[in-house]
């Protein structure tokens, strides 16, 4: 049965998924996290009836013999045949006592052997993982569990569960899997704190995100209009673009303010207060994020490069 027939059997809005154990990692790029893995299929709502399938997507190194659910679509690769292209993934947590013990005593949890894992599960039950995450103090009820071991276990649980939560949140903010992974690589466990605190940091920290994309997120988070973070980000972005696209090492102050105002008002139809914009330019200068000389405004690196060149010429 081909993919058109598969789609015909599904509800109009039903999302395709593949659930299974990771058998092997065929390819993993540690820089952009593009991965190719083979999984043993345990469940799927597609018409795929083979025992295993190749899954591609952007995710961190997955652990063999652990279960994941991948959401995406079946694709026909010209060279390698039919594969499942994942847009997002989720680690399937073990549901049985044996599975939870095996998980907690695995390589993800340093210093947690099988006997310790068994004590945790015997005390807290098969839903020990969700209970610990909801109430870490429950670890104090586990017999003969040293404080350092309990803290290490909790930290590892949060780290492994945190990635999933972050990826889901980034997807809700409109970022695709590849860009989401780039964002996660930049900020790790602090990703959501950084984004919700100042989404405009994405412009300088994550390649591929410009002002308009960051501004869209900023509006969702209530940082639109004349918010100081928005005004400062627009000033820095305009200076960077002027140097990259036009090759200029500085902008005249009035031209800069006019260009920034146009950028901001085109992105969001809100009048920009010039007094506030001027104030934020001064704040950037005070923080040495921009340099000024008379009516010229520079990116610091270009200012010092030009100053150094001028000094060299004078010798």
Defining key terms:
315 residues; OB fold (Dihydrolipoamide Acetyltransferase, E2P); Arc Repressor Mutant, subunit A; 3 domains; 3-stranded antiparallel sheet; 13 helices; elongated; disordered C terminus
Give the helix/strand layout.
Elements lengths: L2 H7 L6 E13 L5 E11 L7 E7 L8 E11 L3 E11 L5 H8 L9 H11 L3 H7 L12 H26 L4 H11 L3 H7 L3 H5 L5 H10 L7 H19 L3 E3 H15 L6 H13 L4 E3 L2 E3 L1 H15 L1
Parallel strand pairs: 3-5
Antiparallel strand pairs: 1-2, 1-4, 2-3, 4-5, 6-8, 7-8
Helix pairs in contact: 2-3, 5-6, 10-11, 10-12
CATH architectural grouping of the largest domain: Beta Barrel
Counting DSSP H or I runs of 4 or more residues, the number of helices is 13
How many DSSP-defined strands?
8
In angstroms, what is the radius of gyration?
26 Å
Described by the principal axes of the CA atoms, the overall outline is elongated
The proportion of residues forming helix, as a percent range, comes to 40-55%
Arrangement of strands in the largest sheet: 1-2-3-5-4
Low-confidence stretches: 309-314
The largest sheet, given as strand count, sense and whether it forms a barrel, is:
5 strands, mixed, barrel
SSE order in H/E notation?
HEEEEEHHHHHHHHHEHHEEH
Give the rounded overall mean pLDDT: 87
Give the CA-CA distance, first to last residue: 78 Å
CATH topology assignment of the largest domain:
OB fold (Dihydrolipoamide Acetyltransferase, E2P)
Proportion in β-strands:
15-25%
CATH C-level of the largest domain: Mainly Beta
Indicate how many domains the architecture comprises: 3
Class from secondary-structure proportions? alpha+beta
């Amino acid at each position: 049965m081909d993919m058109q027939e598969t789609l015909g059997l599904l509800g109009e809005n039903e999302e395709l998924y593949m659930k299974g154990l990771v058998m092997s990692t065929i390819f993993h790029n540690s820089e952009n996290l593009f991965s190719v893995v083979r999984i043993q299929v345990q469940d799927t709502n597609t018409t795929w009836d083979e025992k295993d399938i190749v899954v591609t997507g952007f995710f961190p190194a997955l652990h063999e013999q652990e279960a994941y659910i991948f959401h995406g679509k079946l694709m026909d690769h010209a060279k390698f045949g039919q594969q499942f292209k994942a847009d997002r993934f989720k680690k399937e947590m073990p549901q049985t006592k044996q599975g939870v013990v095996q998980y907690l005593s695995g390589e993800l949890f340093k210093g947690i052997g099988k006997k310790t894992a068994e004590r945790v599960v015997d005390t807290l039950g098969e839903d020990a993982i969700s209970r610990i995450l909801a109430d870490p103090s429950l670890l104090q009820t586990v017999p003969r569990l040293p404080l350092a071991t309990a803290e290490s276990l909790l930290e590892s649980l949060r780290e492994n569960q945190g990635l999933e939560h972050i990826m889901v949140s980034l997807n809700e903010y409109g970022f695709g899997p590849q860009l989401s992974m780039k964002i996660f690589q930049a900020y790790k466990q602090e990703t959501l704190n950084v984004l919700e605190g100042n989404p405009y940091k994405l412009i300088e920290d994550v390649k591929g995100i410009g002002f308009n994309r960051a501004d869209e997120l900023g509006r969702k988070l209530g940082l639109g209009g004349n918010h100081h973070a928005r005004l400062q980000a627009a000033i820095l972005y305009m200076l960077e673009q002027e140097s990259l696209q036009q090759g200029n090492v500085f902008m005249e102050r009035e031209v800069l303010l006019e260009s920034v105002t146009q950028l901001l008002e085109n992105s969001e139809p809100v009048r920009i207060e010039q007094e506030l914009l001027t104030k934020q330019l001064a704040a950037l200068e005070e923080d040495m994020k921009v340099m000024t000389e008379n009516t010229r405004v520079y990116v610091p690196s270009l200012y010092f490069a030009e100053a150094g060149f001028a000094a060299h010429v004078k010798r």
